[in-house]
């Protein structure tokens, strides 16, 4: 049995492969690695939504890998995050961070996001080729989440590099080393903040920890690392995918140029069309489950392909068409259920502010290379172009 998601063209455009798999069966087994183990890949919308909300699919990776003798040496604070846990632990940890990402809390951040966006766009060269990812999509989210957490400016380049290395598919040693660098850095930052407190989100989490709010020191470090990484890697890909989708469609791009106030209304369709998180994070069955007519035994991983689910024609007619008038609010790009992305309001605010600013300030922006020459991130977890050469 071969894994169709490992072909050379898959990262460039996974959707034909997903469509072919979905048409055969929306839930099917695929090989995992070279050791003969299998996982189940979910490509249908209804089945993906059901799987994301099914409590029989656990996210407790520590329980799954216990006793399996893995050679990996991920730092425990990275391996055992809130994302990799079930209730009641997940419920307790999520409650501590939810307030920071409410619509009201994000509204207070909007002037800062707008200011950083303008400062980044001020550096764009006019009439020369440059990289949209390096010039906006990568730095904006990391600056914003670092500001929110209270990470000093001088430390941000290191933090961004380590975070990127956590997604180095096929390089377990690089991922493991980055996990230790990030966790060690966060432990040091927490120690420094205890000596000189501020008013950042990280300072508030430290107060919760030191106020004995049932938060262990490792959980505190783990939350900080998770918010940092999840708070910018995915938004970078959201911005890159959205910009690329528009740059390849002059009529849609022109419409938004003339009507920049329409940007908030089209974000859900841009998220649906090319999801920045291609495959939801790890889940496994705690008992035998039947999903989409497929029997899945207990104790096996279930991979929910969010990008595939968002292109299911049963849910979204003509799914390969970017339709800016479509109501795509039910997309699964932020997940679904108790693990739905807590930072969704912040990601949408950043994308809205950044895309509007680019359209207004650089009305002539266009791709500088043919789309098939673009280099994509080589990982199944997140999806996004590694760079987007443009002319403005």
From TrEMBL:
Which molecular function terms from Gene Ontology are attached?
A: heme binding; iron ion binding; monooxygenase activity; oxidoreductase activity, acting on paired donors, with incorporation or reduction of molecular oxygen
User: Which CDD domains does the protein's record reference?
Assistant: CYP107-like
Q: Does the keyword Kinase apply?
A: no
Q: Does the keyword Oxidoreductase apply?
A: yes
Matching entries from InterPro entries are given as: Cyt_P450, Cyt_P450_B, Cyt_P450_CS, Cyt_P450_sf
Keywords, ordered alphabetically = Heme, Iron, Metal-binding, Monooxygenase, Oxidoreductase
Tell me which family the UniProt entry assigns to this protein.
Belongs to the cytochrome P450 family.
> What is the protein name stated in its UniProt record?
Cytochrome P450
Species name for this entry?
Answer: Streptomyces kasugaensis
Taxonomic lineage is: Bacteria, Bacillati, Actinomycetota, Actinomycetes, Kitasatosporales
